[in-house]
Amino acid sequence: MNFTHMKSNQTAASSSAKFKRVGVVGGGQLASMMGDAASALGIELVVQTPHATDPAVSVAAGAVLAAVDDVLATAQLADGCDVITFENEFVDLDGLRSLEQQGVLFQPSLSSLSPLLDKYVQRCYLKGLGLPTPRFWTWDCSADLPIDFPFVVKVRRHGYDGQGTFIVKDRESFESISAKLAGQSLLVEELVPFDRELAVIAARSPTGEIAIYPIVETQQLHQVCRLVIAPADISLDVKTAACAIAHTLLNSLEAVGIFGIELFLTADNKLLVNEIAPRTHNSGHFTIDACETSQFEQHLRAVCQLPLGNCELKCAGAVMVNLLGYESAESDYLEKRQQLAQIEGAFVHWYGKKVSRPGRKLGHVTVLLGEEAVAQGRIARAQAIAQTVESIWYAS
Ligand code: ADP
User: Which CATH architecture has domain 135-190?
Assistant: First the structure.
């Protein structure tokens, strides 16, 4: 473990934030983008992350170099910070409870994280709230299958970006997946023949104020998010139902900060909750360039007890495309980034990772849509722009 103060005197406009120094467990791109928002609010971030090369280290005021589930490191992080928040959920919740008992303030609180970290426990919690989810079972590979093919198997903890989520179509794919996952307790659920996937990015303040961003459509390939279109083209009824889910959930959790809620929309306009992320979310990245308040600023506002900001779009819409690694290499892909920046209305965000691996999130591009896109058909226009971005990025 190693504590470094890299910028002792970060220059920033003074803010009325009650808390001036925020500790973040995690130091990847989400913490890095939070760092940009922090300086504007006059808040300093200190991150807990294993490597000095992790994306957030260079923008933070300090770093505790340690694994995110290292509780002693979190104690050290908390020492100089007013409040601790999370960039990811791969934490040792039981270990952190002893710090909470000693007076460390976690936002969101550990009790609001606790029903969410295990996918099976999360499903049970949602069901208990009466929220609609896919049908689900816990399963340990050796027991009889609770459902016929096709179905979905998920590892209960530490899955992300589709790692740990498997679509099981037939006996053959079942054999190979169960060999890989043998001995683990798993979540099995019905394969939902969804029409579209949506996401709600919502914030709740300690006083119970809730702010919800325009609901987005997300598109996944091989269980990994490729693009996000804001706003989604959905009926008022679906919008109202999605917002009601967000309100029920955030109030029941007594959540503080940004929460990402992933939803399936079926052909008959029914919503099912797929997953809750107790943190800023990939499907909210468009808010940096397209909204009055970014999800990162909003998260800091909530955890630092500032009034929540305005979630409205500043433009007619936006499309966000993830720049996913497609090879194992050490490259900064400068030429491709320059080409992407030439697209009208494009903002290129690069996470500064030193090594690329297939599927790794290396950056994203948000392209703002003007009124002419609305006239042309916003979704079709967004889809065409995403295709242009991907043809540049994935060109060999
Ligand atoms: P992760 O936590 O790794 O992101 P998710 O549970 O969000 O995993 O699943 C990733 C993607 O896999 C989803 O966005 C969706 O496209 C697909 N998926 C997950 N569960 C189901 C399901 N029950 N039915 C159909 N598709 C699913």
Answer: 2-Layer Sandwich (3.30)
